[in-house]
Amino acid sequence: MIHESQVPRSCDRCYAVKERCQWVADAVQCERCTRVGHMCESKRPIKRPGRPPAPYLQSSVKRAKIVTQIDTIDGTPTELIKDIISSPLTSAIVDASIWKTVLSTVEYLSHRDLALLDRAVNQDDFTQKFVIGPSFYQAHRQKLVFHLLSSRQIVLDGYLAFALSCGDKIQVKDSYKRAASAVLTLRSFQVKSRLDITSCLILGWHILHFVFKVGGGELLEICNQTLSLIKPHDISEKYFETAYFTFLTSLVFTETAECLLKTKLPTLRVDYPAGSNQINGCVGLCTSLLPDLYDLALINVEMQNRSQQKQDWVVADSSDLQAKLEDMRLKFRDWKPHVPEDFCTKFTALEVSHMLCQTQVTQTAALLIIHRLQHPFGTEDGTASAFASIILSQIDMTVHITGKTPKCVDLSLIVACLEVEDETERAQRLRSFSAIGSYSDVFQDRIKSLMAQVWAARRRRPTVYWYHLGDILSPFS
């Protein structure tokens, strides 16, 4: 029997980083956890006193070497991490010995929590929810594994918050604690190196998808916080190969969509010459549309400000803004994605279909937003209905042909459904076509509520332009 005096006194975090665990009398957590804002827990198994058996000693030495090498990283991967990242990841599971090595660096977790972490990082059934198709799986997992090793103390709570949010009730409850800790880390994070930039992206991406899963009004706040941290730094495309660009565009596209709906200013304009031709796992061929959507969001805010300077709900008819808007309309109308010659051979038929769907519905949604900035809801409905029909029909056809909902079409879906008066039809479209809604009922309910508020305002007020949505949705989380 282990005597009570032999039970380890250090908390799990201090134990994992080999720091002295200091306590103040009557405190509920140690000084270090209090200082950095982490949960202070001691859940690791109690060890037998005395010298461990030889096999454990060998694995401990191996683990110690790994952690030592990880802790010496200074913006450049060590040889150990290079070996792990360069190993084959094309199958559904990383090589078992490598993945066990990765998990051995993680602080003590229950078997259930480790299983969820394994699934969130390493399994196709999870990865397919967030990237277009299998051509992007390998690079996506490589970056997750890399940061689990190189930036574990920064990103782990974010990984676990999202992973646990997909578990049972007890795990979902624990996910909120992990999310709170991850948000504190994000808010106090200081970006100083290239590794910090990518770690910040990975952390923000996981918190964002935790919010998508469990609900809440922090989508815009999380995107803004993450992108504001990396904005002052040189984040030209040379730093972002396709996998990292996927995480970046996911945050940028989500923030821009929220800003267009709530009439807010986006944080970051992603306008890199080489990056505009990248095909990534989030927005596919639509990368070059991101700076134009940013500019459209700015015009939206300008029109709202002009309207408010006069009186509520009047037409913002300044000629300079109307000229800008017409230029944007022509730009979106004439936009064509950069399609490489090997596009149809490099990607699967499903991926090609989904990316082509993305391009058409995103382009059409931008044109419909511009139409509603020029003409209030309830007028010029023929053109608006035609745009909405193109969006809904294209998504419907893609789902019918491929059996899967395309990624990053939720903004286009919302824009189209704002033209659909029947609430039952709107709910059915959202249930069938929302990529995020396919794994988050909370997100579906949020968008249903958003559209209901807009339609209620349309019935109350004689004139509602797109730039009025910010006022309508200001109390909406």
UniProtKB/TrEMBL annotation:
One of its GO terms (molecular function) is hydrolase activity. The keyword Nucleus applies. Keywords: Hydrolase, Nucleus. The keyword Hydrolase applies. InterPro entries: Fun_TF, Zn2-C6_fun-type_DNA-bd_sf. Pfam families: Fungal_trans_2. Transmembrane segments: none annotated. This is Fatty-acid amide hydrolase. The lineage of its organism: Eukaryota, Fungi, Dikarya, Ascomycota, Pezizomycotina.
